User: Fold this.
Amino acid sequence: MTIDYERLFIGGEWVPPSSAARITLTSASTEETIGSVPEAAEADVDAAVAAARRAFDDPAGWRTWDAARRASAMRSLAVQLEARADEMARRVSSQNGMPIQISTGLEGGFPVSILRHYADFIETQPVEEERAHLQGGTTLVRREPIGVVGAIAPWNYPQTLAAFKFAPALAAGCTLVLKPSPETLLDAFLFAEAVAASDLPPGVVNIVPGGREIGAYLVAHPDVDKIAFTGSTAAGRSIAEVCGRLLRPVTLELGGKSAAIILDDADLDLSRIGQDLFAATLINNGQTCYLGTRILAPRSRYDEVVDTFAGFMSSLTIGDALDPATLIGPMASRVHRERVEGYIAKGKGEGARLVTGGGRPKGQDRGWFVEPTLFADVGNRSTIAQEEIFGPVLSVIPYTDIDDAVRLANDSDYGLGGSVWTTDPERGREVARRVQTGTIGINRYLPDPGSPFGGVKDSGLGRELGPEGLAAHQQLKSIYC
Ligand code: NAD
Assistant:
C-alpha cells in the first residue's frame, strides 16, 4: 500500500498543484515505493507566500491575537499532532530509516512538547516593556513578529527540526511557508492534516514540497521576511549569501563534527552509560548533526576506550527501521549510503585502523544499510576526522592531557555539539566551558526546548529553541514616550 496525495496545503486549503510533477517517496529499509506527493512549482510557492503574507498582514489576524489566544491555537495543533504521533513516527522511519523506537519519542513526541513549551512561554512574556529614558519620560520597547518566515528543513529529523522553526515562529505571531526535504514528505503532509484540523487560521502555515531549486526560490522571494534553515553547511553558505544581499534575517543550523571527550576518570561501564553514549554518538544511524563522532581518548585508557566502543558498536541490533528492536537502521537514501561508504574507504586509505564494521551488515539484502564502523588511531587532521560523514562511523583519536584534548576538540571547522565523559561533574563543566561549540553535554547529550540550540564556526548562525529562538522571530521597536 502506498500513501498518495493529490493536493497541496496552501492558505488553509487543499489546492490543486500548478504542475503535474510529483515526488516519489521510498522506504530506506525495503527500497520500495511507499507514496507520492505533488511537487510544488514556483507558482505554488508564490501562492503559499501570498497566503502567508495575507494571514500576516490581516489587521485582525494572527499577529494581533493576544498571547493567550495564540497559545490556545498552538495547543490545539499540539493535540492534533499528538493524535497522529504514532503514524508520524512510522512515516518518518519508513522514509529516512530512523529506528521507530527513536522516532516515536522524537518525531512523534518532541514537536508536541516544543509547541506546548512555547505556548506556555508566551503567556508569561510581556510584549511591551517600559524603560526609563535618560532625558526623562520612558521608552516603550515592543517585540513585534518578524513577518513571513521561510522555513527549510532537512530529512534527518524532519518533524523535530520543522518544529524548531514553526513553534517559535507561531509563538511570535509570524506566519510560515515550510519547505520540507524531498526525502521526507509523507510526514509533512500528515503535519498539514494536523494544521488543517487545528485552530490555526488559514494561511498561517503553508507547505511547499520540493527540492533545492524551490528552496532557493523561497529564500529569495520578495515577500518573505526571514529564513530559518537547517541543513548542510554548503547549502547554508549559499542561503546566507542570498540573505546577505537582501539584508534578510536568517538563522542557519548546519553541519557538525563534534568531539566526545572521554576523561581519564570516565565510567565506561556500558550497562550504566550505554544508552547515553548511544544518544551522544550514534543516534539515528549517525544521521544527526550534533553527534560526537570524534572520540577523544586519554592515552592512559586508550585500548580500553577502543575495546569498549568496538564491543558496543558490534552489539547494536541492526534492522528494518519499523522493527521496535532496531537500534541501527539504514541510511536515508542510496546516494547517501554511497557517500558514507566513500568516507569508510577514505578512512582505510588514509591509514586509520578499522576496528569493527566497514561493510554492509550480513542478512540485510535490501535497504541502504551500513555496518556500525569504528576506526582507531585516527589523525585529527584526516578526512574522516574533519568532514561530516553523517552515518554510523566513529573515529577514536588519542590525547595526552586535558589541554591536548581541548586543542583537538577545537581543531575543527565545526562547533555544534559534543560531550564530556567523567565521574567528576565539576571537571566535566570545566572542560565543557573550554570547547568551542554551541552545545555540549556532560555524560549525556540531550537538547531541551528551554535552552538555545545551534552552532559556532561552520555549524551555523543564530540559535533555535529557548527564549533566544523566540527572539529570532521578533523585531524590536523603541517608542520614545
Ligand atoms: P541539505 O543542505 O542538502 O538540504 C537541507 C534542506 O535544504 C532540504 O530541504 C533541501 O531541499 C534544501 N536546500 C538545499 N539547498 C538549498 C538552497 N541552496 N536553497 C534553499 N534550500 C536548499 O541537507 P540534508 O542532506 O537534507 O541534511 C543533512 C545536513 O543537515 C547535514 O549536514 C546535517 O549536519 C545538517 N543538519 C544540521 C542540523 C543542525 O541543527 N545544525 C540538524 C540536522 C541536520
Remarks:
- The chain is about 40% helix and 20% strand.
